[in-house]
Design a protein that fits this description.
2 strands; mainly alpha; two-stranded antiparallel sheet; 7% strand; Lysozyme; 217 residues
């Protein structure tokens, strides 16, 4: 189940809970009435609304518990996003707060979760020195000639390209290691130690397997 699908499930559960909470629960009815020759004093009658609410609470509780067990991927991506934001915060970089988005797009495009933030740190000091001629380009993408509508779009576009999911650039990035991706992104003939510099930042951000133990447990 993808992260987007999981979020939709959670929203659906919240909507159902709000619906059930709208029921007006009637008090327990205490009455005396004869049944045959046997008087039934103080018989408790449970309103149907109470029964329905109890049933739904059991169903919702069980469903949420099930999803918590089978979807640990959420916790993995959350941990990675927090590590990215912690790195940005440490150096007072403007991109703090976009860690979750970077981790999500990295997962979606099957690239190292540290690659996007490390490139942004190397290219623009995490947004401090973003491209001036175009908007929302803190990756140096397209030699600072390509702008984006938002920071989120910039992250999506770069992740898609580095993951080999853009047919126009797939021959550069598809199936490559981190070092090979970086050497295509900024060749050694232009910046000799570029790949080493970015990989060093990646290692500072965190371990490549951060959160993986959650998924495999």
């Amino acid at each position: 189940m993808s992260l987007a699908e999981q979020n939709r499930v959670i929203m659906k559960n919240k909507t159902l809970i709000r619906f059930l909470e709208s029921f007006v629960l009637l008090p327990v009815i205490t009455t005396s009435m004869p049944v045959g020759n046997v008087p039934m004093n103080n018989m408790n009658v449970v309103p149907p609304q109470v029964v329905l609410l109890q049933q739904k609470n059991i169903e919702i509780g069980g469903f949420l518990a099930f999803n918590q067990v089978v979807d640990p991927k959420i916790e993995q991506i959350k941990a990675q996003g927090e590590a990215i934001d912690a790195y940005f915060k440490k150096y007072d970089m403007p991109l703090e707060g976009l860690g979750q988005k970077m981790a999500e797009e990295a997962d979606k495009n099957d690239i190292d979760w540290r690659l996007l933030p490390a490139i942004s740190a190397r290219e623009s000091t995490g947004g401090k020195q973003a491209c001036k001629r175009v908007a929302h380009n803190f990756f140096g993408w397209g030699s600072c000639k390509i702008g984006f509508k938002s920071d989120q779009e910039a992250i999506e576009v770069l992740a898609r390209n580095l993951g080999g999911n853009n047919p126009n650039t797939a021959h550069h990035y598809d199936g490559k290691t981190n070092r090979e991706i970086l050497q295509k992104y900024n060749p050694p003939s232009i910046v000799p130690r570029y790949a080493d510099q970015v990989i060093k930042i990646m290692n500072e951000i965190g371990d490549v397997d951060l959160g993986v133990e959650t998924v495999n447990s």
